[in-house]
Amino acid sequence: MDIGINNENRQEIAQGLSKLLADTYTLYLKTHYFHWNVTGPMFNTLHLMFETQYTELALAVDLVAERIRSLGVYAPGTYAHFSKLSSIEETIEVPKANDMIRDLVAGHEAVCRTARSVFPAAEKASDEATADLLTQRLQLHEKTAWMLRSLLE
After folding, report:
1. Residues 6 or more apart in contact with residue 118 via CB below 8 angstroms
2. What pLDDT digit, counting tens, does each position of 125-148 carry?
3. Which of 87, 106, 129, 137 has its CA 20 to 30 A from that of 14?
4. Are 133 and 59 in contact (CB under 8 A)?
5. In CATH, what number does 7-151 get?
6. Residue 3 DSSP symbol
7. d(CA 17, CA 77)
């Protein structure tokens, strides 16, 4: 494979992207879980908002996984892989609506930190495609975290 990024750099970038994929998938599952189980006066608003968010996250996992494959590395794709790689903890109990929002804010902020951690490897390798993907993910997760935080004020 000769795309202008050596194997060592491709492996390092893919490792970081694998963590981003695991965080994104875990946040997808959590958001979908909350969509199914939200109750209370904000039910309709949150139910619809969570649906929009989990739909976007479902598309994002594909983008991240395909970037990993474009680098010539296999993408992780099992719960076992994701649980080892993700910085986001699962939520087992069904929280109250405001706690769901707080939990999702923390999840989006975690994805931001993970995405930012991949930039040095991408920049070192002049991997503009990965940097572009990371920038797009950051914009979305920062905006979503802001919107969710606004519900708590």
Report:
1. 13, 16, 17, 19, 20, 130, 134
2. 999 999 999 999 999 999 999 999
3. 106
4. no
5. 1.20.1260.10
6. S
7. 12
